[in-house]
Structures are given as C-alpha cells and as structure tokens.
Amino acid sequence: MVRASKVSQQKSPAEFFAENKTIAGFDTPAKSLYTSVRELVENSLDAAERVGVLPDVSVTLEEISLERFQKLYGVEAAERVDKGLYKDVETERERNAREKKQKQARDRAEKDAKKKAAKTGESVEDILRRQEAGRKAAATKSRRVFYRLTCKDNGSGMPCDDIPNMLGRVLSSTKYNSVMQTRGKFGLGAKMVLIWSQMRVAQPMEVRSSIAGQNFISFHRFNIDLHKNAPVVREHKKLQNPDNWTGTEISVTIEGNFGSYKQKLLKYLKLIAIITPYASFDFRYVAEDEKNSFFHSYTRRTDRMPDPPREAKHHPSDVDLELLKKKIAGSSHKKLSKFLSGEFSNITASLAGRLVTELGGADGARAKGKGNIDISPKQMTDTQLLRLHQFMQQVRFADPDGKDLSPAGEYNLRLGVMKELNPDMVATHEGSAVALEGHAFIVEAAVSIGGKDPAIEQNQLNVFRFANRIPLLFEQGNDVITKTANTMKWSRYKIGLEQGVGVFVSIVSTKIPFKGTSKEYIGDNDKISGAVKKALEQCASQLRTKLAKREEAKQQGEKRKNLELYIPDVSRAVYGVLNSLKDHDSARSRCVRDAHVGILDRVKRGKLLASHFAGELEKYVDKKYQEDGLQYQMQNKKKNRVEDVFLGPLSSERGLTPALSNGVCTIQFLAR
Ligand SMILES: Nc1ncnc2c1ncn2[C@@H]1O[C@H](COP(=O)(O)OP(=O)(O)OP(=O)(O)O)[C@@H](O)[C@H]1O
C-alpha cells in the first residue's frame, strides 16, 4: 500500500524555475550560454529605448578553462589518492573495452576512407586526418568550460534600491501591470542567468548601474536564496561616476559551450542588428588561446529610432475577474461609468453611459426602480462584479488600434536587411494593426532576393522571425511565420528560389502569444497567419514589378549588345565595298549617285576609314536606346506610374553616402 505523504510542501518560484530551467530556455550549457547573452542584450535594448536613447550595447564573453576556473575560485583538486573513486580513471576492464572499440572504429574509418578515396580521388591519409581533426574538435566541445559574461548598456540604469529585487527575485519586473510592447515580459530572464550561474558556478552576479541625475554608480554583488526567492546581497557600495555615465553593466560567471553555439549566437546578433539598425552592438570574445579571440561590431546605421511604445489601457474584452478586481482596488473613480471609460481602451464616456444603463436594466435595478448601477465600483457586490464581467464579454467593443505599438518601420527594416545582408533586391511592407484577444498587433515584412551573404542560402526560402523586435531562432518549423511563408506560392510572383530568398517577418504586439516562457516561437493562429500572408504578398508583388523591370532592362541591354557586336564587321564590310568602288569610274557612274561621290572621294583620300563607320553606327545605337528609354519613361508617365524612391541617411560611415534610388536608377551623393 502506498501512503500519501502527510507533509505538504511548497516551492518558491525560484526553486521551481531552477528545477525546470528548460522552460526558460536553459537546457544544455551551450544553450544556456546563448540564452544568457540574449536575455541581457534584450534587457539593455528595452532599457535604452524606454528613455529614448540610441542603444549602445557591448557584450564580452571571456573564456575560462576548467583549470583556470579551479585556480580562480580556489577549488583546485587535491592530489588524488584513492584513484578508484574518480570516474575519469579507467578500470582495467574499461580500458580493454575502450581499446577494442577504438580499434573497431579505426578499421571501419579506414575502410570507409578507402571507399571515399576511390570515389573522390582524395588520398586516404587526408580523409583520415580530417576525420581525426573532427574527432578532436568534438572532444574539445565536450570539455567543461566557463565564461565571464558582461553586458553593458547606456540605458535607463536601475534605481540603486531596486537592483537586488529586480535581478535577485524571480518574477519581479518593471514590465508587469502594463499593456505595453516590450521585449521582456515574464520577469524571469536575468534571474535565470543568475540561477544558472548558481547551479554550476556558485558565484554572485555583479551589477554596476547609474540612473540619470545620480552622481554615483551603485555596485551590487548578490545571489538568490532559491528557497526564499529573495536576493542575498554580499556587497553593496557606491562608486564614483566622474563621466556621469547612465546605464547598467551586468557581469556573471556561467558554464557554457561557446563552440557549439557560436554560429547561433552570431546569427542572433546579426538578426538583432537587422531589426535594430539604430543600435550599435559590440561582441568581444576573449579566448584562453589569444588566436581564437575575436571582435564583431555591428554599427549603427541610422539615428532614426522608432517612436517608443506607449503604455496602452486594457481592452475590455481581455479582462478577467481578477484583473477587474485589481483595477477597482487601485482606482479612485466614484462612478462605474467613469471607471470604465478611464481604465479601459475603446470605451468612450458615452459608451460607458450606455453600458451602465444597460447593465442597470439587466441587473434589475432599473426595472425595480432602484435607480441605475452607476455606483462606486468599490461598492459593487461579488454578484454585480460577476455580472459586469460577463456583460463585458458580450459587448462588441471596437478593436484596439495599435497606435501605442512601435514597429521597426519599413525604413529601418529595409536598412537593417541592406546593411547586414546586402541582397540584390528587397521589398518591405508594414501592415495595419489587427486585434487578437484584445491586443493589437502589427506585422511588418521584408523579402529579399539574392546577395552573397552566407546567411541567405541559395535554392531555398530563408525565414527570419522577430517578435517585439527579438529574433526568434528556435522551433523554426513550428512557428506560424515559417508555416505561412512556406505556403506562399512564390512562383506566382515570378520569384524563384535559385538565388536564395530571404523572408523577414516582424510582429509587434502588447501581447505576443509565445509558446512557453523562453519566447522561442509563436504557435498557429489564423489571424496572425492571415496578417503575415498579407504582408508577404505585398512584398512579393513589389518584387514582381521590380523583377519585370529588371528583365525588361536586361532584354534591352542584350539587344543593344547584339547590335554592337555587329558594328565592327558591318563597318569593315561597308568600308571594303566603298574602297573597292573608289577607283572604278564605270562603277562610279552606274552605282553612285552624286551625293555619294564625296564619300568615295573621302575614302580614296583616306579621310574616311572603317573606324569612322563604326563610330557613326555606335552613335546611332546609342541614340536609338536613349530614345527608347525616353519613350519608356513617357509611357510610364502617361500611365501615371509612380516609383518608390528611397533616400538613404546622410552619414559619413563607409559605404553609406546618401543615395536616392528606385528600381531604375540610383543617384549617389558623394560626401566630401
Ligand atoms: N540593463 C538593464 N537596465 C535597466 N533595467 C534593467 C536591465 N536589466 C534588467 N532590468 C530591470 O530588471 C527587470 C527584470 O529583468 P528580467 O530580465 O528578469 O525580466 P524582464 O525583462 O522584465 O522579463 P523577461 O523574463 O521576459 O525577460 C526588468 O523588468 C527591468 O526593469
């Protein structure tokens, strides 16, 4: 018989997430390293944008080998005496088994290498050497490695007293209680970085931060007491701030595996640079072996930051009873109608009046002559509240308009794609706001064709997803954006995949319906899918027009080239005929009209050569194509065709002198 445990147990949120860290994106050491960088970078961007500052974010990742880690933190292993205790010391049996296995693997590899060599012409030795290098690299990847991760920004900074709570207490955030587009959402990310550190490294997090107008930098070192879900501050001091720096620098030591996630991490940074071209990102990797260190800089390409997102009110259709009670408790409205119009979006004063009258009737108050229900919300009984909530679910409210959202904007999206990937062609579109469960969302998209960047693979659709301007890199196949992009009939728009097509979709909303707390993908949803499709179709139609124009220009060019090809032969032939006629008087009288006598004379005197004919023919071809071009433009004018023209930013940075361009031409201003 199994006895039910009599002792009831509770778990703090910190303990829960420590035990279930996978749901927050902290799976393996490699993924945890990636997620840690991501969480800190996204907090930095939120912090800068919140105060309207162009973000400068720098990330440093310093590799710390196991040996150095042990020395650094004084945990060097004592000399081994009882060797049998250690799992990395082989027993006799284990060694024999390993050697046997290795021999079998070697024999197999040799056999395979011989087969491959016969096929490819490569030498067996080369193949084996490469395999050995691969094995060594895999062995390196499986070694335990630690990293000192530091992320510094120029954002809002954090009030000194808030730091331990905001970063050392799970489920604490300044982004709760507001209906607002933010990257952060759960009040979890930075704390998970510390919890991950505590689980493998047990070192505190260090935070330096200063807010505007503060003449010192606050410094904190702290851990989380998982059981109490509370910060444990180990050191707190005020440092001098001679440069009046505002921002935050968070530093933590974690276990990780950069080798396995290097490409993922760099892709993440590239994508975040695409969607935030007004930010500058530095990524410095400091390896144990200096030659493996590197530095990547993603430069700011515009000072035009999207208007920051604004706090919106809750939409009445997305309000549950608990939220209703909370809002009532926190409000000072004396009348229900004022409460409704003051606290919720899409309820005007007149609608609030209608709602209250209707509610009074339905509630029986009006029918019983007890006056209406426009009382203080705080005096409402539980039944009245339940009734109000149900009523709010039945009423048809206008959708939220999305005015408080902050999409990257077509300009930024185009600029980001151009600066990071430099494709041959790109089209962008920003859709209008759509509502989903009381939250507005906007889909913006870019579709690119070609380019040499390895991020765009040829012969396929390369889908890049963003949600609230965060790149989403995992669960690609399950995401609504990928699924929608894959159902598009690209050939209908004359878009072939040969050159590699890039599909960039960014969704912003006051509530992104992520699947899970790790914010990795958005599940299937008809409304989102419909809006994504619409945006992609718009981009695809623009590209079809551009491709048609390019094809037309190409054909013109080819025709011209073909004509030009004949010019030398034709000139030589004409000259040859004239040259043979010049001395035959009978021919002159029979075939040559007066007007041509001069030509023959000039040929005879050597004043007219084949090169002159070639020159004239070239002039003719030139003129013809200028006239055709003019005619083409006139036709377009008649059809009142308007071309999109884009003006690049005035910047002295390399490769970005301002340019006016459309599908036909580019005017480049040279900065002097
Ligand atoms: N670099 C920073 N600058 C200013 N404030 C910060 C910074 N990093 C974190 N914060 C503050 O700490 C809070 C907690 O951050 P945390 O990453 O734990 O959660 P979040 O960003 O609110 O949500 P999510 O778990 O979805 O990322 C944030 O809401 C923010 O107020």
From TrEMBL:
GO terms for biological process: DNA topological change. Its EC number is 5.6.2.2. Transmembrane segments: none annotated. It catalyses: ATP-dependent breakage, passage and rejoining of double-stranded DNA. Residues 92-127 are annotated as: Disordered. Residues 92-115 have a biased composition (Basic and acidic residues). ATP binds at N43, D153, T174, K175, G184, K185, F186, G187, L188, G189, A190, K191, K519. Residues 400-559 form the DNA topoisomerase VI subunit B transducer domain. It is found in: Nucleus. GO terms for cellular component: DNA topoisomerase type II (double strand cut, ATP-hydrolyzing) complex; nucleus. GO terms for molecular function: ATP binding; DNA binding; DNA topoisomerase type II (double strand cut, ATP-hydrolyzing) activity. Component of the DNA topoisomerase VI involved in chromatin organization and progression of endoreduplication cycles. Relaxes both positive and negative superturns and exhibits a strong decatenase activity. The B subunit binds ATP. Homodimer. Heterotetramer of two TOP6A and two TOP6B subunits. This is DNA topoisomerase 6 subunit B. It comes from Chloropicon roscoffensis. The lineage of its organism: Eukaryota, Viridiplantae, Chlorophyta, Chloropicophyceae, Chloropicales.
